[in-house]
Amino acid sequence: MTTLLRETLDHSSIYMPTPARIVAVEQFTELEKWFHLELPSGFTIAHQPGQFVEVSVLGIGEAPISICSSPARSNGAFELCVRRVGKLTEALHRLEPGSMIGVRGPFGHGFPIDRFQGKDIVFVAGGLGLAPLRSLITEVLDERGKYGRVALLYGARTPKDFLFPDDLKSWAERGDIECHVTVDRPTDGWDGNVGVITTLLPKIDFPARNTIATVVGPPVMYKFVLQDLLAKGVAEGNIWLSFERQMKCGVGKCGHCQMHHIYTCQTGPVLSYAEVKDLEEALS
Amino acid sequence: MRILPKHLLQAWVERLRVDHRVVAPRESHGQYIFDEITSADELVLDYHSSVLPPKKYFLPPREDLFTFNAKTMEMSPVIEEIQPTVIMALHTCDLHAIQLLDRIQGTGHVDQHYQARRRKTTLVSIECMEPCMAQAFCKSLGTLSVPEQFDVHLTDLGDRYAVDVGSDAGEALIRGMGFFWKPSDADYDRFNEVMAGKWPNFDYRLDCDVTDLPNLLGASHDSALWDEIGERCLSCGQCTKVCPTCYCFDVVDEIDLKLEKGKRVRVWDSCLLEKFAVVAGGHDFRNSRANRLRHRFMRKGKYQLEAYGLLGCVGCGRCALSCPAHITPIATLNTLNERRQASPGESA
């Protein structure tokens, strides 16, 4: 008998996490670490790519972090890629394998992967945006035959800031996913692309009509990527974006993540451009 | 309908106190607050408004969510089992507000902390006969009469109350008590006379119809008015504290000096406060007082309706009364309406 992690919420308090063990940690960059976590036996996370969990360090607090592992491969274990950027993530970065944290979730709506079958897919990742997309990319590549052409466009600040180096290498080698990377600022020895992520879009020549674009990155990136995707002719309902907001409770109660009538933690964090284009605050 | 003679009111409340905590409006420093009463003669049914709305009995300003031991990872939920409670003399605006809170806390994952308090509480409301204050606009918002869901509702007929029962929990406060009479023809006549007589005492304070409010706000997103009142707003969050439908909260951990035993606590928060929509890394999705103020108005008159099917404002006027910058919903909404009419099609 397995229990879905999210079912625990309704048993006692929707705000009380379940303990999870850190089984491995890898330092990706100066600011980003990868955590491999294990739920208590009998629990499974059963998430959609693009969903997030609320991560607790007891005594410090809680923060929403998107799951970066593939659902099919997750089971009782799952992975997070965490940037050290606030109080909670600083505490998390200090933890060693064997340490315990708390998790609640998964929450919200992820990428509607069932609707991607037979389509060409462009993954557009800016910086840490690769983390939630890696969950989707792995899922898509595991069942590669279901999809049309697949491409990853990935931008980082400098060559030192690339996340998931092993994955990037294996994706580049497998040949059935077009990979283009770029950096804002090159360092010595970098002979790849330099420039913002939109400079990679012209490299993709998929017919727009059958193209799905999934876009995750810093807020500033969205406006420019959207402009170019729409100009290319990608349908508004086929552009999927993940929204970052202060999703404090994860259950649509605390109000912090509300944009217009949408609680990002419930209806989002992944929403189509068609759903948000008239919401003035969403992309400002 | 039943009839409760006024001279039996105290006896009824004393009887309720046998097996309930009874909460009612009470005078405090020239204002009214909801507080537990220790004797039926403290009961005040005729009051203008309370400083804080009764939401504090379901969502306390500060409450423990769970306790933990950070070393052993043991956690234990804190679901407060309150004694059966009766809240007396709620105005219908506050009743409408509780209906909205019920819907929000019961949508999706049910908030057990709210639910535990709410299901042990029975609400006794009272029909308003006169406007309570100049800042209220209940008639415009349709909250001057009892909502669909209520427990017990009183209407003052002079020397007696008409008593309507709307739920099983309400019936349980009435049945077998011996204080309630069957209404006579004269009681029905008096009731209808009183109800018809009260409406002219209240004015429509908004220049637009309540059904038009979402359209008005939708058309006013880029209005210059937000900047104008944003200039005056102090971002103090007072309006949200006194609001009967505001429920947003912050969560903090507290831990002992050994960094072992602690608890996670939620406290009232406010979308008017500076850090409310800031994400880790510092990006602020509502980085000006104007934006935050606009968000609050939009939420009250548009967003909550779209999300939950009920308006987020009940017209109680508490925010206007408590705002140190004298920002009021009546003036704000009427100004938006005026400007829309002055330049239709354009942003107000």
From TrEMBL, chain A:
Cited Pfam families: DHODB_Fe-S_bind, FAD_binding_6, NAD_binding_1
Record: residues binding [2Fe-2S] cluster: 249, 254, 257, 265
Membrane-traversing stretches: none
Record has Cell wall biogenesis/degradation as a keyword: no
Domain of life: Bacteria
Record-annotated FAD-binding FR-type domain positions: 15-113
Annotated GO biological process: pyrimidine nucleotide biosynthetic process
Gene3D superfamilies named among the record's database cross-references: Nucleotide-binding domain of ferredoxin-NADP reductase (FNR) module (3.40.50.80), Translation factors (2.40.30.10)
Keywords annotated in UniProt: 2Fe-2S, Iron, Iron-sulfur, Metal-binding
Co-factor requirement: [2Fe-2S] cluster
Keyword Ion transport: no
Gene Ontology MF annotations: 2 iron, 2 sulfur cluster binding; flavin adenine dinucleotide binding; metal ion binding; oxidoreductase activity
PROSITE patterns xrefs: FAD_FR (PS51384)
Cofactor binding mode and count: Binds 1 [2Fe-2S] cluster per subunit.
InterPro entries in the record: Cbr1-like_FAD-bd_dom (IPR008333), Cyt_c3_hydrogenase_gsu (IPR012165), Dihydroorotate_DH_Fe-S-bd (IPR019480), FAD-bd_FR_type (IPR017927), Flavoprot_Pyr_Nucl_cyt_Rdtase (IPR001709), FNR_nucleotide-bd (IPR039261), OxRdtase_FAD/NAD-bd (IPR001433), PyrK_electron_transfer (IPR050353)
Protein name per its UniProtKB record: FAD/NAD(P)-binding protein
Organism encoding this protein: Allochromatium humboldtianum
Lineage: Bacteria, Pseudomonadati, Pseudomonadota, Gammaproteobacteria, Chromatiales
Automatic annotation (TrEMBL), chain B:
Domain of life: Bacteria
Stretches assigned to the 4Fe-4S ferredoxin-type domain: 222-254, 301-333
InterPro entries membership: 4Fe4S_Fe-S-bd (IPR017896), 4Fe4S_Fe_S_CS (IPR017900), Helical_ferredxn (IPR009051)
Record GO terms (molecular function): iron-sulfur cluster binding; metal ion binding
Keywords: Iron, Iron-sulfur, Metal-binding
UniProt name for this protein: 4Fe-4S dicluster domain-containing protein
